[in-house]
Design goal:
The complex is a heterodimer. By secondary structure, chain A is mostly helical. Helices cover 73% and strands 1% of the residues of chain A. In chain A, the strands form two sheets. A two-stranded antiparallel sheet of chain A has the order 1-2. Chain B is of the alpha+beta class. Classes of the chains: A mainly alpha, B alpha+beta.
């Protein structure tokens, strides 16, 4: 008994120490910075933020909010529409389409923005074609500014609506629809009066999540609307100018909003999940062919395929374009493997890939250990409310935008702290793996808790009853049973780390320059081919890791996204 | 001959918030006996089992095993193996690995593990299934594997939580017999929780009936069935009909009760009952006979339902507002819904309770 208590206490202590040091302490540092001016407490920074006479900050907040609201609306239409289309109707290529529809979830934000930029940006392929066909002045057409940002958001974030709505639809009792139809309701009426109301909780959840992601979105404004005011850009610029008071104040405002939304999201998803399911055996869903003839159906499928795949195909195409050869032509003319050859042969070019791999493995390892620890303590430990607090703290980073996290880390670790062994972390290799770890630990916590909640508690009881102490129960029973959820959490973490851009661009040093930062600097130097090649390599690495993991799990599909 | 006490509960209570799941339970379970706990759902029987296993800590009271206080012992030190309602077999292991789990957890020397696993599996006729992964087992096989996993650690007490409730009817009856034979052959003290009274009556050496967190009555199945001490035990175990009446007076070893102005029955009772007191007579369905309508002093009723059950036929009859269930052996085609009957009670088999 004492041995068990001691080993449990040590583990719990370690978890508390790390959560306090790398989540709570940096947030505290941010708040302190925002209310400290020349060493004394003052709220002048907030006064300046909400000052109506110089409304640039409020303008940034307003822009962030309205762009997010519009993004939510468009994403809702696209994502829900696709989900209903794929689950209610029998389409040619249906399975393939429903698979590629979730691609954006694995797409690093920078790569998504990049492919969209190549496709529809000012000098993108579509823009050039339009300009050429209509005989407009060069560069006069293309997505930019707010339209560009909203377009990118729609393309990348519709996937949340798609996933939530698909999950909702798959749980929908098909007898409800049959009942409506037998009562003489038309298809459209059934959709409007029966299906959509059932999906409401899922759609509310997706809206909140999309709003949060749009508010925190950094890459799209940076690349498409660097001249417009957005809260995230204000933070970034303030950091570049060394104006940490302003950066911290903006960060606090954004965090308060985001954390509020996280709690709304959690309570909505609780309501959603606790809904009782119909009794009896679920019947297979009945899909009906899309109205219209065979030609219409194929047309819809092909248009969708192009719509979903075009940005990635563009990325692939650009990656083969010879550097400097694509200037005024509508389509690139000269193709080469040299961008890839450089990646494989030049050590300086390969280095970012190695850095990203090393840091992602480190961060994923830490997330797995501490994330599973938190989930176990929260769901199984006898901590009463302590477990809940632990869980909330570990989930907080899900609400903290990457820019804010970077500011937190700079403010917290530019001087020695006990959490870092009295070392300065800023400017070292370790700052990024630790930032990745904090940023993505919620993925492991969520997936582990979801696994633990589904787990039959009598398994653990049976093991205790047969005399197994907690380490053995953990090692022999819980861990193996939960392996799929833990691995899918770890995999998502790894993917997210590999493509991480937002905190990287603000925290990287010469020792740990990651792929995303390299892509960005290639872009700045107009080396589009190299930037695209990095993007393709990143995607390929992600696909390989996902495939290997699914093989190892024996073909079980990974559960994605769970808030 | 009375054997030694194996388990003892002393004034054990357990509350969950405002709910009193166990209310001052005193119980002794003897070495080697098969003891069942029955009761409706929510009566506290599963809590009782979980308190014994150590999964729940009693709010007050003591639990003794072999005279030693084990109230604060964690489950892994109690040497009581449990068979769960859903079996709780580890899904990522084979049958053999499941059975070996407890031995490994208790650090049984490696060479001893395999022979013991084999023996335990042979005991439940699962000798050929050691290498089968758990998800490939049928319901009955899972149940037997769970029993083997519990028995292999040679526990002092075997705890079973409705282990047959997930099996279909034929398999349940068959498994029940095997379980009884197994328990008798290895003489292991067994505490068995069920909501199925026929299971408890058939399996147990002794049993206890629970209601609302209290242990209402403990005894052999015959005692409980034939001499229920409360109306609840009478209705729960025997589906007894509860008929209100008024005491007329004592007549020797029985008390005369009027259940209608002209219908009197004499029920055995030692209790002190005063004239005019309201009482309830409990009559089991099989202790009611139909007699010709001409008989005097009998309760008259109309047949409202006839259900043929195979070896017997069940009738629901209604007299004023009172619905009575009566069981007749064999097939009786002479009575149909809407006909009138006269009822006679086997007075010696009735019980009397304060109203």
């Amino acid at each position: 008994m004492p041995v068990e208590t001691i080993s449990k206490s040590i583990t719990l202590g370690l978890i508390l120490f790390v959560l306090a040091g790398f989540i709570l302490y940096p947030m505290g540092a941010m708040v302190v910075e925002s209310i400290t001016i020349d060493g004394s407490i003052s709220f002048d920074n907030y006064g300046a933020f909400f000052d109506l006479r110089s409304p640039s900050n409020l303008e940034a907040l307003w822009n962030s909010v309205w762009v997010s609201v519009v993004s939510v609306l468009i994403c809702g239409l696209i994502g829900t529409g696709l989900a209903i289309l794929f689950s209610e109707f029998d389409l040619p290529l249906g399975r393939f389409l429903s698979k590629i529809a979730i691609l954006p979830i694995a797409l690093p934000p920078l790569v998504g923005v990049l492919s969209f930029f190549f496709l529809a940006g000012e000098s993108g392929i579509v823009s050039r074609v339009v300009v050429d066909v209509l005989g407009l002045a060069e560069g006069s057409f293309g997505l930019e500014g707010f339209t560009g940002v909203i377009a990118v958001h729609s393309y990348v974030f519709y996937v949340y609506f798609y996933l939530f709505a698909s999950a909702g639809l798959s749980r929908l009792d098909s007898s409800l629809i049959e009942a409506a139809e037998s009562l003489g309701s038309s298809r459209l009426r059934t959709l409007w009066k029966v299906i959509l109301p059932q999906l409401r909780p899922a759609l509310v959840g997706a809206s909140l999540l999309t709003f949060m992601m749009s508010m925190a979105s950094f890459t799209a404004p940076l690349i498409f609307a660097a001249d417009k005011r957005f809260v995230v850009l204000q933070i970034f610029n303030a950091k570049l100018n060394g104006d940490f008071d302003v950066a911290a104040t903006h960060s606090v405002v954004l965090s308060v909003l985001a954390i509020g939304f996280l709690f709304l999201l959690r309570s909505s998803s609780h309501a959603w999940r606790s809904r009782g399911m119909a009794k009896g055996v679920a019947r297979p869903r009945r899909v009906s062919p899309l109205p219209g003839g065979m030609k219409v159906r194929w047309a819809v499928s092909l248009v969708l395929t192009v719509f979903l795949l075009l940005p990635i195909l563009t990325l692939l195409l650009i990656s083969f374009v010879k550097e400097g050869s694509w200037t005024w032509q509508v389509l690139p003319q000269e193709f080469t493997f040299s961008n890839y050859v450089a990646l494989a042969t030049q050590p300086s070019v390969f280095e970012p890939i190695r850095n990203s791999l090393v840091m992602s493995v480190l961060a994923t390892g830490m997330s797995l250990f501490f994330g599973f620890g938190v989930a176990y303590a929260a769901a199984r430990g006898r901590l009463r409310w302590g477990g809940g607090i632990l869980e909330v703290v570990a989930l907080l980073p899900a609400a903290i935008p990457g820019t804010v996290l970077a500011i937190n880390f700079i403010l917290a670790f530019n001087s020695p702290t006990m959490f870092t062994g009295w070392r300065v972390l800023v400017g070292t290799f370790w700052i990024l793996p630790l930032a990745y770890f904090v940023r993505f630990i919620p993925l492991v916590v969520r997936s582990s808790i979801a696994g633990l909640e589904q787990l039959d508690p009598s398994l653990d009881e049976a093991a205790r009853n047969l005399g197994a102490e907690w380490i053995r129960r953990l090692r022999k029973v819980l861990f193996p049973v939960l392996l799929p959820s833990i691995i899918s959490g770890g995999l998502l973490t790894f993917i997210a780390c590999m493509g991480e851009f937002v905190t990287s661009i603000m925290l990287y040093t010469v020792f740990n320059r990651p792929i995303a930062v390299e892509i960005f600097s290639q872009l700045r130097m107009f080396n589009f081919g190299s930037a695209a090649a990095y993007g393709v390599v990143l995607l390929v690495l992600i696909v390989i890791v996902v495939e290997i993991t699914e093989r190892l799990l024996g073909g079980r599909r990974l559960q994605i996204v769970n808030f | 001959m009375k054997s030694a006490t194996k388990l003892q509960l002393k004034q054990v209570s357990k509350s969950f918030g405002d709910v009193r799941a166990l209310d001052d339970v005193d119980l002794e379970i003897r070495e080697g006996e098969f003891f069942s706990v029955v009761g409706p759902s929510g009566s506290g029987k599963t809590t009782l089992l979980r308190v014994l296993a150590g999964f729940e800590k009693p709010t007050s009271g003591q639990i003794l095993a072999d005279g030693r206080n084990i109230t604060d012992e964690p489950p892994q030190r109690r040497n009581m193996a449990m068979v769960f309602q859903n079996y709780a077999l580890f899904p990522h292991m084979t049958v053999g690995e499941n059975v070996a789990f407890g031995l490994e957890a208790q650090h049984v020397p490696r060479p001893d593990v395999q022979p013991r696993v084999d023996r335990a599996l042979a005991l439940v006729q699962m000798g050929d299934k050691a290498n089968v992964p758990v998800p490939h087992l049928s319901g009955g096989e899972q149940q037997r594997a769970a029993v083997a996993r519990a028995l292999v650690v040679e526990p002092g007490v075997l705890l079973m939580d409705e282990p047959l409730s997930n099996l279909d009817v034929t398999l349940r009856v068959e498994t029940r017999e095997k379980l009884r034979l197994l328990q008798q052959s290895i003489k292991i003290t067994t505490v068995y929780v069920t909501h199925d009274q026929s299971e408890a009556l058939g399996l147990s050496d002794r049993m206890g009936v629970m209601n609302g967190g209290r242990l209402v009555q403990v005894g052999t199945p015959e005692e409980l069935y034939n001499a229920p001490r409360t109306l609840f035990v009478a209705t729960f175990l025997g589906n007894a009909n509860a008929i209100h009446g008024t005491v007329l007076g004592r007549r020797g070893r029985c008390v005369e009760v009027a259940i209608r102005e002209d219908v009197r029955i004499c029920v055995p009772s030692q209790g002190e009952l005063s004239k005019g007191q309201d009482v309830i007579v409990a009559v089991k369905p099989e202790h009611i006979r139909f007699v010709p309508l001409s008989a005097s002093g009998c309760l008259r009723a109309g047949v409202i339902s006839v259900q043929f059950l195979g070896i017997s036929t069940e009738f629901l009859v209604k007299s004023d507002d009172l619905v009575i269930r009566a069981l007749q052996m064999g097939t009786d085609n002479s009575l149909q819904v809407g006909m009138n009957v006269a009822l006679e009670f086997e007075e010696a088999k009735c019980s009397l309770f304060a109203g």
